[in-house]
């Protein structure tokens, strides 16, 4: 080996799953035919990876950030709002508050707003027009609100003002009162939190008044589509410094993705983001072009993340058959890769239960293949097989370290490494 091998991390968003009744108790991955992934499993080592801690569900921003080198101690401070903002190149100043939002199908019911569809039928057209209408809303307490669409139903709310706080609750909290927009509440006994919560509640109510009669939504209703008649807000945060394992080890990293959250993480971490018009966050994404882009990026980078969102979308939409089919399509798109000279990992940011449509705390089936590494006795890629894998149960950070070690990128432990390795 004349030089260090490059690394490719294939992230199938929401891949891990639970047994599906129509599959006779198999998961979508266990049901799928995946000869390429099976080859990697048979020639490498498998594991079950817990993103943060066993049994705890995480969002995409946390699951991906940990796989991308976020120090575990920073996970609690990583709000999705600022990540989404980075994904659309939003200029944010210290003190600004950013919230991740959804366009949602909402209807008034007495004195509450009822949520009929949290994603407004996964609206993916004319959200820019709807956002412009919301930017006419004037908030109390001198707070300025600017609303930006991102990917599909997702959006960002940017708050600016002298006395604002991210210590506020989400309005999207179905576990409290299922099916209703929740009032935003202050989470700290401070004027800034009270004022910001009041402003969010005002924005939510005004947004409903504007959107439910907007021509775009009237057209959607006429076409039989769910209207984007309201806004759900969550994961407020401010920009902050974050520590990254890959930057610490000076690993030149690229990210191939069409998902704004992942793109935002790439920008926050200083990685190279690679995107094309044919890349989407749905199962209709151009898999061939994504694979080609990832291989091309490996020529100039040490490590490349190939992120594919569609598996998670299928699970959220309760489409087990489509998730299985899409896994097989991904496997086929990767089949011609030359695996003889690089380290390849296959994993996910979290598990998504297709039965419920929600993220779960189940560990993620994962492979670490190296042409120079050890092998275990696993010959198939699935939840059941990875439970018997030679790497056992790992955190996302430990799994990333395992990949970097196979790439020859690590040095012997020093006391100054503690900040980044404290979860091991």
Structural class: alpha/beta
Let me know the largest β-sheet.
8 strands, mixed
End-to-end C-alpha gap: 29 Å
Strand content bin: 15-25%
**What would the principal axes of the Cα set say about the shape?**
globular
In the CATH hierarchy, what is the architecture of the largest domain at level 2?
A: 3-Layer(aba) Sandwich
Report low-confidence residues grouped into runs of 5 or more: none
Please list the strands of the largest sheet in the order they lie side by side: 9-8-10-1-11-14-2-15
Along the chain, the helix and strand elements come as EHHEHHEEHEEHHEHEHEHEHHEEEEHEHH
CATH topology of the largest domain: Alkaline Phosphatase, subunit A
So how many helices? 15
Short note summarizing the structure:
This protein has 424 residues and is an alpha/beta fold. The chain has helices spanning 28-31, 35-43, 60-67, 80-87, 127-134, 191-211, 215-222, 245-248, 260-269, 287-297, 310-316, 320-334, 383-386, 396-406, 418-421; strands at 6-12, 45-50, 97-109, 112-117, 144-149, 154-160, 230-237, 253-256, 272-274, 303-308, 342-347, 351-353, 358-360, 364-369, 392-395. It has an 8-stranded mixed sheet, with helices on both faces. Strands 3, 4, 5, 6 and 7 form a 5-stranded antiparallel sheet that branches.
């Amino acid at each position: 080996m004349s030089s260090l091998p490059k690394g490719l991390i294939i992230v199938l968003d929401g891949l891990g799953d639970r047994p599906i009744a129509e599959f006779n108790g198999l998961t979508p991955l266990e049901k799928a035919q995946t000869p390429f992934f099976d080859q990697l499993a048979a020639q490498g080592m498998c594991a079950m990876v817990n993103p943060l801690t066993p049994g705890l569900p995480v969002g995409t921003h946390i699951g991906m950030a940990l796989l991308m080198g976020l120090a575990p101690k920073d996970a609690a401070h990583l709000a999705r709002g600022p990540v989404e903002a980075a994904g659309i190149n939003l200029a944010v100043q210290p003190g600004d508050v950013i919230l991740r939002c959804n366009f949602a199908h909402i209807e008034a019911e007495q004195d509450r707003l009822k949520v009929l569809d949290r994603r407004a039928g996964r609206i993916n057209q004319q959200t820019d027009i709807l956002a412009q209408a919301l930017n006419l809303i004037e908030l109390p307490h001198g707070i300025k609100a600017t609303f930006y669409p991102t990917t599909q139903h997702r959006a960002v709310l940017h708050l600016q003002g002298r006395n604002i706080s991210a210590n506020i609750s989400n309005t999207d909290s179905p576990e409290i009162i299922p099916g209703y927009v929740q009032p935003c509440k202050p989470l700290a006994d401070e004027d800034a939190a009270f004022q910001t919560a009041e402003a969010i509640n005002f924005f939510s109510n005004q947004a409903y008044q504007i959107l439910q009669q907007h021509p775009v939504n009237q057209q959607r209703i006429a076409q039989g589509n769910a209207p984007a008649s309201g806004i759900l807000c969550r994961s407020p945060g401010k920009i902050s410094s974050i520590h990254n394992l890959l930057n610490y080890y000076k690993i030149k990293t690229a990210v191939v993705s069409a998902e704004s959250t992942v793109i935002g993480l790439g920008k926050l971490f200083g990685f190279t983001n690679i995107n094309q018009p044919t890349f989407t966050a749905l199962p209709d994404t151009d898999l061939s072009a994504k694979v080609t882009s990832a291989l091309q990026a490996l020529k100039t980078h040490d490590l490349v993340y190939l992120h594919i969102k569609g598996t998670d979308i299928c699970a959220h939409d309760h489409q087990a058959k489509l998730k299985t089919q899409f896994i097989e399509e991904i496997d086929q798109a990767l089949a011609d890769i030359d695996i003889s000279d690089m380290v390849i990992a296959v994993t996910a940011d979290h598990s998504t239960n297709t039965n419920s449509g929600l993220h779960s705390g189940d560990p993620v089936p994962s492979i670490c293949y190296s042409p120079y590494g050890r092998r275990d006795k696993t010959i198939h890629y699935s939840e059941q097989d990875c439970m018997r894998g030679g790497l056992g149960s790992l955190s996302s950070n430990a799994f990333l370290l395992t990949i970097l070690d196979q790439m020859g990128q690590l040095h012997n432990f020093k006391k100054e490494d503690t900040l980044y390795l404290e979860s091991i």
